[in-house]
Amino acid sequence: MSVSGPLFTVLLAVLRPPVCLPFAIQSVLAQTVDSFELFVICDGAPAETVACAEEFARCDPRVRVFALPKGDRNGEAHWHNALQDARGRYVAHIEDDDLWFPNHLEEMAKLLDTVDFGHLIHSYVRPSDSQIMVFWADIGSASYRQKFLDAMYNRIGFTFVGYRLDAYRRLPEGWAPSPPGFWPDLWMWRKFFRMPDFRFGTRAAITAIAITAHLRDYDITDNRSAESHAWLERINDPLQRAEIVEAAWRSLINECIELSNWALDLDTALAEARKHYRELDETYHNLEQSFHNLEKYRSDLEKSFHNVEQYSRDLEQHIHDLEKGRVELKRRSREIEQRNSELEERTRVLDEHNYRLEERLRQLDRRNHHMAIELIRAGFSLPWSVDDSQLIEVSREALADLLTSTSWRSTRLLRRAVRLCTGRGGNDLTADTMPSSFLERQRLIREIPKSTSWRITSPVRVIGGLLQRFPCKGGR
Description:
- By secondary structure, the chain is an alpha/beta fold.
- Among the domains are: 229 residues, Spore Coat Polysaccharide Biosynthesis Protein SpsA, Chain A, CATH 3.90.550.10; 88 residues, no CATH class.
- The strands form three sheets. Strands 3-2-1-4-9-6-10 form a seven-stranded mixed beta sheet, sandwiched between helices. It has a two-stranded antiparallel sheet with strand order 5-11.
- The C terminus is likely disordered.
């Protein structure tokens, strides 16, 4: 040990009976680097544990015993207080049921010369078959350290860790009780990993084994001591120690091979997954296309539905208009029926009126006939004994003379008609003013009935009627 102070301060905390403690202390005292101080912190440990530790202290001045009452949680506060008296440049830990190889501090010193916090490879004895197994870690990687900060993840035990004492004293908080349910080692490692200016590293060296108590279900008093003693004997034998190191590396290699095989299987599974993914991607593309088509079909259906709704509204409007038209048509039909009824009534009235007029005309025709007969009888001075057939024959001859004669006596009937039509006296009609041609006289006789005076036209209409019924032979 140097005059200025030891190279290492080793912390060994114990709270159990001294079943494995002697073997842990012996593995520390057998180090090739003898510049260290060993603090055995008895955290409320039984009296026999304290006595065991003090026995080693009497035999080796590098051993110092802290017999303290049980502290909170795992007694982390006692560890911090003990480090206040530490004189070593580096700090190392060992649990009371673990064992160091003789070169542990030698390898740890090489590591801590370049980093502020580091560890050697964590190796442990598997309880089922006593095989040496390895927890691989690389805290030199910031991304790997982040795992410790983000989750309950820890691959480094106390026995394999070391740190510089000056780095520890720069921490905002040193060893302190961890929260309930939290691992005390991980709680402390996080404090180091949060320091941005600290250097971290892992040294690939097998220099210790953990014989973890909580993984074993046999009686601690009888069998643990025998197991620890057997492993310490193997560690102290260089050949067997080399076999332990080889077995540890072999377990790591086997694990790497298993990982490699697993990686190959994973690659195969990944290739299958990629193939399946491509198929799924193609299926997804088809489904997406189908979905697009369905969306288009849905859009078309919505448009069609909209058109149907519009057509339905138009149809309803058309039906409404038709109903209005039907009502209007019905109303107009009633009006037309009413008008038809009125027209029928008026037609009936007109028919009755026409009938009366026709009857009146028949009466007038009969009267005119009698008047014409009387006129002819008077005009021609015929006796009443002349029958109608003789009268008609006389009328024919008289009409022929009337149309062609220039005799004053023969045309007196015509003159009378002219006088009645024009309002002149009979003496005013001379032979010079009397129409001479047959056609002019005939026209005159036909024009006279156009007069509106019944008195004027009554005798002449009879003559005209006779003329039409019995055409005259003269004047042709």
